[in-house]
Amino acid sequence: WENWDTYNQLNMYYRRNGLELTAGSAYNLSNNLTRLATTNEVQTTNLWTNKWISDFSSRNTYNNYMLTAAYEFNTNHAIGARFFSNLLVGANYEHGKFSTDVIKNNVLYDHIESQIQNRSTAIPNKSLSAYYVGKVGKLNIDFNTDYYYGEETELRTTTEQSANYDNRTVTSAGTHANKFFATKLVLSHPLFGGSLSVGNENTFTNHEQSYTNQEGIVANAASTIKERNNAFFFEYSRLTPIGQLMAGLRYEHVNSDYYDQGVYSTEHSRTYNQWFPSLTFATQIKKVGLQLSYSVKTSRPSYNQLGTDVLYINRFTRQSGNPTLKPETLHNITLVSSWNWLTFVANYTQTHNKIMYWNEQESTDENITNLRYRNFKRFPALTLSLTAAPTIGIWSPQLTLFCQKQWFDIERLGSKFDLNKPIWGIKWNNSFEFRHDWTAEAFLQVNSKGITENTELIRSTSAFNFSVRKAFLNDRLSVTVGVNDLFNRSANQSLLYTNNLSIEIKQEFDSRDFYVTLRYKFNTARSKYKGTGAGQSERNRF
């Protein structure tokens, strides 16, 4: 619609006896455009209002390479390894224009025209995985190990032209480097008519960040996080006369050592010893299937959320990480009921140390707002959904109605502020199977106004996607033509609330696009690679 994107992928397999070799490559060119109209209002000793109008465009180019080897000695023993590299081709660019009216106590204070140039370069990241899957007697063995390394540097220049005060140029360089190693061993064996699985998972992470500002407007920073997670877990499942029972328990011991400018920080370092139980019971009463489960999980903050990088927006507003963040702990209760082509799901989640967007005023100048994350003690939320998925001739619809409701309030400008308005919505997938290898798909999603966390959605959104596919040569060759967000209604309009800040955002994307996909495949078969990876939740934090 606004620009061209392209994605090209080639995968090749070679098989002989128990050996399988795989080589793959993908090239991705992505151009994006975002338009923003933002009103930022913060109450300190003075009432400051920033009204921004901005356009952002970006260009990202990546080239992925993958090599895989898998070998089956026999039906009881198999090994394999995979190497993956994501190469940033040249450099990724982002360009933005800001036009800002700064208002102090309802009187125009300044007008600022800003230009932002952002350039990212990276050392190709490298990922290596290996596995062994075997069976000795009745004992099943599943071992996986993973290694990852990646480094990226972001160069950013912001030029401000002020109508009433000094002009300003802010240049910064931020570097991220990640090293990661993990192992996971799972042993399973029949026990008392059921199956018992026990295992151990270890992850070792070294994350380094640095931020430098040549003009000294923003303080330089450098941090290193060295984290070790040693986890033991077991799961037992058994079919009983009244249904299937599964019970599990996971124990994690985590040491997270934080170094500020190379010096160990006791304040920001953490040690956690946590237990995570899970229990599931599934049964069927006549034609109605029922499943009730309870689980405790953790969600640790990403390394960007913990980081030292500062995003300079203008002389009054900045964004940064928060190294004092604690991990979230989620208590989930889920009920699933199914009958024929109807499925009902109810999920209640109680989150402790919920991570949300917040703001603080700079200690050196209360008129400068720093946007960052913080923890909240308790956050309960309920999600309900009802899905109907019948088959009517050539038509296979799947209609889901859902509702999301939270019980949460904050202290805002000296009084209690409720954030409890629910969000409703529908998802409607449709597929049509026609004669002569023609198929069509249509998708509609609608979200209502409402509140999620401390953000109010003040405009309903919708997206309609449609595609047609034609297969040739017994489905070896296929052509797909489609359009995403046909009516261009996925634009976001929201209000973020904190104790003394509100940010109204009107955000438009280049989400409406027309696409053509050409795919050719021959002599394909299911991959023999059996690796499942180790430490994936930790790696996702990068």
* Strand residue content: over 45%
Q: Residue-averaged pLDDT, rounded?
A: 94
Number of strands: 31
Mind telling me the C-alpha Rg?
26 Å
| Share of helix, binned | under 10%
Extract low-pLDDT stretches: none
Q: Give the helix/strand class.
A: mainly beta
Span between termini = 32 Å
Overall morphology:
globular
Regarding quaternary structure, how should these chains be classified?
Answer: single chain
Question: Describe the biggest sheet?
Answer: 29 strands, mixed
Number of helices: 1
Give a structural overview.
The protein is an all-beta fold and 542 residues long. 1% of the residues lie in helices and 76% in strands. The chain contains one helix and 31 strands. The chain has one helix at 536-539, and strands at 6-16, 19-43, 47-74, 77-88, 92-104, 107-136, 139-162, 168-191, 194-213, 221-240, 243-260, 263-264, 270-285, 288-299, 310-314, 317-320, 328-339, 342-362, 365-388, 395-406, 409-412, 415-418, 423-433, 438-447, 450-452, 455-457, 461-472, 477-484, 492-497, 501-509, 513-520. The strands form two sheets. It has a 29-stranded mixed β-sheet that branches. Strands 21-22 form a two-stranded antiparallel ribbon. The radius of gyration is 26 Å and the shape is globular. It starts with 5 loop residues before the first strand and ends with a helix. The model has no long low-confidence stretch (mean pLDDT 94).
